[in-house]
Task: structure prediction
Amino acid sequence: MLIRFHQVRIPLIIALLQKICLLERVNAEFEALERIAQNSRGDVRSAVNDLQSLSEATHNLTLQETALLSSRNKDISMDETLHKYFAAKYIVEVQSLLSYSSVDYDDFLLSVSDNLPRRYTNPSELAAAYDYVSKADLYRGRIGTENWHLLKYFFNELAQAAAVNPESFKPFEFISPPIRIITLFWTKGKRNMLNNICGKIGTQCHVSHATAKHDFVPYIKLMLQQKKNSPLIEWFKFNDEEVDHLLKMGRY
Amino acid sequence: MVAVLNPKAFKLPRVEKEKFITLIRLGLDYNRDQGTFSIKSYNNVEKLIETVSAILGDEVVFQQTCTRCGKNFSCSTCNYVEMCATKNLPFTCVCPQCLRDRKQFEQYLLKF
Result:
């Protein structure tokens, strides 16, 4: 189950700050609280911290004092990054968004790839966008773990994919996390089971997991299908669940 | 055009049986006496808004209920609507009048 925590709205943060000011006997200007709430970008904890740091000494808070606040460079979530990415109108906008977002680049690339058909309904626009994403993927591969000087090219290609036709943007429901990751999550149990089976085959036949998986499992499956109480079960020390899994498994 | 609906009671044009069932499954409740719909479950509210928008042919936004005065108000009256990332959920917020009115706020606090 996925529970999303959204940003807290500005009026609600202002209301909370007003309450704190009243209880702590801080005389604060409305505009100052407004500025703190806007600066917090929906993060209540940072808004409370800012209020405390600005008003602790004098118990007074004016708009001028909030000028000392630096803009919070917040980490933005995958959902928010995707939303801003697809809603962007200019390439520069996307580039700056990607540079301050801390999402995993590989996950983001997969998510963009999953969501592009929802973003572009026109086939030629979709093809152009996928072309840019494929180039971005190419740069991501070249970056690897050390060539980070190529990151700007990765951002540039992704930004171009978002800005193929900015006018055609209509809000849509995002696929997130990426389908590939969801699939890996859902098949984890099956993969673990197959891994255990391969381990048992490997122990008895002195082969690696990979060899067991490719060269042994298909034949053992056929043998078990023909004779369900085959002596192989005892020899490999398969339990009932593993036998059942072998009999029912499709391609892997 | 944006249609602003009251989540506690709003009317929709007559819909087919399948559509009606979909609406009920998505979390709407139907009051036969008044012929109005209300939101019973918020679990599928995004899908629900999408479906209601398709029925009405307009973008749909639900009214917010002020946590201080209890009145319903629309997001379009809020000064921060452009910065707001959650225009539709939750359906409770603080209305612009209550936010500015210090006396009303103090009275609100006295209730607790």
In short: Chain B has a mean pLDDT of 83. The beta strands of chain B are 2-5, 28-31, 36-39, 59-62, 64-66, 72-73, 92-93. The radius of gyration of chain B is 16 Å. Chain B is about 30% helix and 20% strand.
